[in-house]
Specification:
The protein is of the alpha/beta class. The protein is 22% helix and 25% strand.
């Protein structure tokens, strides 16, 4: 994956901009939406693109090749990707049991839990897929502790972000069964360590909700970026996060923009802007 700029090269006097994409499900991608998203990403001058899983529909080599080509076309200075449950072969049981991530890693790199460490932003990817689970996700005690220790070591100016695939919070009763297993322990421990945002995907429904059990951090979900597998009332969409760093008064706020694909415009258009009040840090 492209990493054109070395860690630490981001000037600290400007906002950190993250583009959060999820669930492109290559194999079900819509060509006009793909082209519109490439144009949109090129226009944003973001510091990184982060993708919270389900890169493919059925984890085939051809689908991973198409996904890799798409991510390369974004020409982003940094791209962080984690696998989703669709990125493990479903019908090829031999591959699923013996080498579930072989095709993913051949196309997108060996690191299943990548890290982005910039002066104003720390993003920690967590692999929540399991070969013995068809759709559900899981976070282990060892993963929870590893991430917590890294969060606790973050600098005072850094936005502290964890990226998972399955959601840690939902807004509709029908999505409750999709909640990440182990989330309660994870959120409690990560709150102690100072987490600000937990990014996710999986349910193709974009929203942001506060997490009282995580000290006032936020769950930020992304919709499906380019797939035809959209939910009713939730078109293809992506998130843009702007983090200016702490204010002189200690106030910490992050701006969330949701951009939806508008077929009439053949482009992604701004649909929502929200200010997320983040936990105070000592």
């Amino acid at each position: 994956m492209p990493h054109a700029l070395p860690p630490g090269s981001l000037p600290v006097e400007r906002d950190c901009v993250l583009l959060h994409l999820s669930d492109p499900h290559f194999g079900t991608e819509q060509a006009p939406v793909v082209e519109a998203l490439v144009r949109w990403v090129h226009a944003q001058a973001a510091d990184a693109v982060v993708v919270s899983g389900d890169i493919t529909q059925r984890a085939t080599r051809a689908q991973f090749a198409a996904a890799r080509a798409f991510l390369q076309r974004l020409d982003a200075p940094r791209v962080l990707v984690i696998p989703g449950n669709h990125d493990i072969p479903l019908f090829d049981l031999g591959s699923r049991l013996l080498a579930p991530y072989r095709r993913y890693q051949a196309a997108l790199g060996d690191d299943l839990e990548p890290t982005l460490d910039l002066p104003h932003c720390l993003v920690l990817g967590a692999r929540t897929t399991r070969r013995w689970r068809h759709s559900d996700g899981e976070i282990s005690p060892a993963q929870i502790e590893r991430i917590a220790r890294r969060l606790a070591d973050a600098g005072p100016a850094q936005l502290r972000v964890v990226m998972v695939h399955q959601p840690v919070a939902v807004t509709r009763p029908e999505d409750h069964e999709n909640l990440l297993h182990g989330r309660e322990a994870a959120l409690a421990r990560w709150a102690e360590a100072g987490v600000d945002l937990v990014l996710g995907g999986h349910i193709h429904l974009p929203f942001a909700v506060p997490l009282p059990q995580a000290g006032g951090a936020w769950a930020v979900q992304a919709g499906t970026a380019v797939s035809s597998r959209v939910r009713s009332g939730a078109p293809n969409s992506v998130n843009l996060l702007r983090w200016p760093g702490p204010g002189d008064d200690g106030r910490r706020c992050c701006t969330l923009e949701r951009w939806n694909f508008d077929a009439r415009l053949d482009a992604f258009a701004l649909a929502l802007t929200d200010t997320l009040e983040l936990p105070a840090r000592g």
